[in-house]
C-alpha cells in the first residue's frame, strides 16, 4: 500500500465554536486542519462528508491536485471552509513526513518572528482602556477592537463619539497600536464620518468599513482618508480579492485560512496582493490549527505585516466551557508572546501538537449536549435588523 495514501478523514466540532479536521495516511502520519466557519458548522460538516468520500484513498502528497479537484469538481463551486481544513491537514502531513515546517516547503522564511495583535472590547465595545493595558502586560503591542455597536443607515453623530474616545484612550493612554473593526456594521453615510473622525489618532487600520459587497464605495472611503483600509474575511478566493486590488480599494488583505481554501489559497492571495503593493494580515479569531497555518504563510510572505490571534478573546472566554487558544494544544509554549511577536514555529508540519484524546472527548460532549453556535440577531430601537 502507498504509504501516503489517505485512509481516514475525520472532523470534530469542539468548544467554543471550532471545527477541527484530522487526516491519517497509511504510514500512520496524522495531519490536523481547521474548517471553522462560525454560524455555518452543519453546512461545513455536510461538505466534509463529500470530501471524505472523494479523497479517502487519494495520495496525500498530491496537495495541489486534491485542492483543484475539490474546488473545481462542483459545477456551482463552493465549500471553501471544508477544503481549507483538508488542505491544512495535507500540508501538515507533508511537513511531518519530510521532517520540516511547512514554511520551508513554501520557499523558506523571510522573517524570524511574527507580529501579532489581540482583541479588546467584545461585540459591545465599552470600557477598553483596562483591557488594552492587560493586553500590554501579556506582551502585545497592538490590539483590535470593534468600532461600534449596532448603527442605523444614518444615525446621530453622537453614536460615533464613543468610538473616537475609545481609540484615543488606547493610542494616547495605553500607548498601543489599534486596529478598528467596523465589521460591516456601518453604512456609507456614517462610515465616512467615522473614518474621518478617527484619522487624527492614526489607527493601524480600519477593517471592513462597509460590507464587502460594495467594492466601489470602499474604494471611495480609501481615497477619503489616509488610514489603511483592511478587508477580506468574507472573501473566499483570490478571484474575489481581485476587484479590490484593481480598484485600489484596500491597503491590507485579510483572508481567513479557514475560509479561503487553506494554506494553498492563502499563499496565492498573498502573492497576488504583493503585485498590487497590498499588505497581508490574515484574519484569524479562530483556533490554534488555523493560527499555526497562518504562521506558515506569514513567515514566508514578504508582504505580511501582522497576525490576528484569539488568545483570551471574548468569543472564547464567554463560552460556557471557556475553551481558549491553548486548550487543545500539547505544546502551547510555541505561541508565547514577546515584545508583540511570536517566534517562528520550528516543529514539523504546521508546528503544533494537538491533544487528540481531549479533542475527541470535547467533541463528543459538545455534539451530544449543545447546538452549534449561531451569531446573534441585532435589531435597532425601531425593530429593524442591524448588521452584526
Automatic annotation (TrEMBL):
Any single Pfam family the record assigns to this protein: MR_MLE_N
Cofactor: Mg(2+)
Claim: Acyltransferase is one of the keywords in the record: no
GO BP annotations listed: amino acid catabolic process; D-galactonate catabolic process
Entry GO MF terms: galactonate dehydratase activity; metal ion binding
UniProt entry keywords in alphabetical sequence: Lyase, Magnesium, Metal-binding
Residues covered by the Mandelate racemase/muconate lactonizing enzyme C-terminal domain: 125-228
InterPro entries, alphabetized: DgoD-like (IPR034593), Enolase-like_C_sf (IPR036849), Enolase-like_N (IPR029017), Enolase_C-like (IPR029065), Galactonate_deHydtase (IPR023592), Mandel_Rmase/mucon_lact_enz_CS (IPR018110), Mandelate_racemase_C (IPR013342), Mandelate_racemase_N_dom (IPR013341)
Name of this chain's protein: Enolase C-terminal domain-like protein
Organism: Armillaria gallica (Bulbous honey fungus)
Lineage: Eukaryota, Fungi, Dikarya, Basidiomycota, Agaricomycotina
